[in-house]
Amino acid sequence: MRSNMRLRLKADGRIVELRDGHEVPLVPDMPVVPEPVAVRPGEAEVRDLRRRAQLTQMEFAARLGVPVETIRNWEQGKRMPRGPARALLAVIAHAPETVFAALAPVAADA
C-alpha cells in the first residue's frame, strides 16, 4: 500500500481512495465475508472484533488511537462506543486489514 494514500470513510461503510479529485473504491486483497454487527456494538461485539483481529486490548487501543481504558470500558459494558468510534468499529468488522493499514503511522521519507 502506498504511504501517501488519501482515504475517506463513506457513510455506507465503504473506504475509498481519493485520486486526482476522484473516489476510487478500495478493495481488500482478499475477499471479506461481512459479519453482522450490532448498530451499537456492546461488550461482546467489541471483544469479538478485537479477538478476531488477534490483538490484545493494548494493541487494539494503540491501533485505534484510544486509551486502553476505553477498550476495557467498552468490553466490560461500562461505556458504549458512540459516533465515529461506533462507525470505525463497524468498518473494522467488514475490512479490518484495510482499516488497520489506513490507521498505521506513515513512515517518514528518508
TrEMBL record:
<keyword id="KW-0805">Transcription regulation</keyword>
<dbReference type="Pfam" id="PF13560">
    <property type="entry name" value="HTH_31"/>
</dbReference>
<dbReference type="InterPro" id="IPR001387">
    <property type="entry name" value="Cro/C1-type_HTH"/>
</dbReference>
<feature type="domain" description="HTH cro/C1-type">
    <location>
        <begin position="46"/>
        <end position="81"/>
    </location>
</feature>
<dbReference type="InterPro" id="IPR010982">
    <property type="entry name" value="Lambda_DNA-bd_dom_sf"/>
</dbReference>
<keyword id="KW-0804">Transcription</keyword>
<dbReference type="GO" id="GO:0003677">
    <property type="term" value="F:DNA binding"/>
</dbReference>
<keyword id="KW-0238">DNA-binding</keyword>
<protein>
    <submittedName>
        <fullName>Transcriptional regulator</fullName>
    </submittedName>
</protein>
<dbReference type="InterPro" id="IPR052359">
    <property type="entry name" value="HTH-type_reg/antitoxin"/>
</dbReference>
